[in-house]
Amino acid sequence: MTRPEPAPGSTAAGDARGADLLFAGTVFCDVVFSGVAVPEVGAEVFADGFGITPGGVANRAVAGARAGASTMLLARLGDDPLGTHIHAELDAEPDLDTSLLEHVPGHQSPVTVSLTGAHAETGTHDRSFITYQERLGDLTLPDGIGPIGATHVGIAHDLPAWVARLRSAGTRVVGGVGWDHTGAWSTEVLDRLSEVDVFVPNDVEAMRYTRTGDAVAAAKALAERVPLAVVTRGPDGAVAVDSANGTLVEVPTVRVPVLDPTGAGDVFVATFMAADGHGWDLATQLRFAGLCASMSVTGLGGAASAPRPADLVRFVERTRPDGDWSFLDDLLLTTPAASGLPTDRNTP
Q1: DSSP letters along 32-65, please?
Q2: pLDDT higher for 127 or 151?
Q3: In terms of Cα–Cα distance, which of 211, 265, 256 is closest to 233?
């Protein structure tokens, strides 16, 4: 990925390293139980699988780093046992710079318990969550971190001031939005699309905000407001509209057995951002991100199951999905973490 050039006289030209990708937000400790339904009052149920994994913004950060992009994480964790464990897990990720992952003494790190179970008849998944979170103030991006290739922000609320600062320096800003629990789906949210370069919602979010009836129509409507609109469709793949040249691209997904769909959307957007640095066309970028998201649902947790290039190559060789996947071979050659070469983004 091509990073913006450091401004003349900035510290980015000196000690600051910068990164291909920057993700900022809340890191959760995800405690995941699979193959289980929510128990009735007074009852006990037993899960088929269990895992403790980084969640929240860590899903995107880990997925981006494993996809071969140097990645920086701006977040906070407490000094509680779960937070300490998650911090260590993130520190151990090659190509993930955790120097901006703040350690907050006395703070309880956010925790989410996820229960996921499949319906044998339909193949769909039910998910239930229990979350505990102690709120902290807004995150601040320090000056002099170096050039950033791309960053991801939520547009449901006003964007942090540092986003405009990065964008003016050449950073590509990718926007996302979550479920609107109010049910209003205010079109005022879409007014913030002028502050981003790419928008990646899922199909339900896109259709609700644009008042359209299908993902393609929603992507076209969004592309009137943002240079590139990408709408994910879960098992039906993704559709993108590049407003600069009027290109519409649709790609299917790679079908896999689903164990836990948590974090698949995060994996998609992060690996799509990472793919921008490989010189691939839009369809190939979408296929790469879709494959990464598909593989992530075969394990527990988004971050823990985010694939590395070698995982993708082995999967393609084993399952032979439709299409030409030869571009993955080049990715192996350019990703140190996939080839076993040592990398350490956490040392000064």
Answers
A1: EEES--PPPTT-----SEEEEEEEEHHHHHHHHH
A2: 151
A3: 265
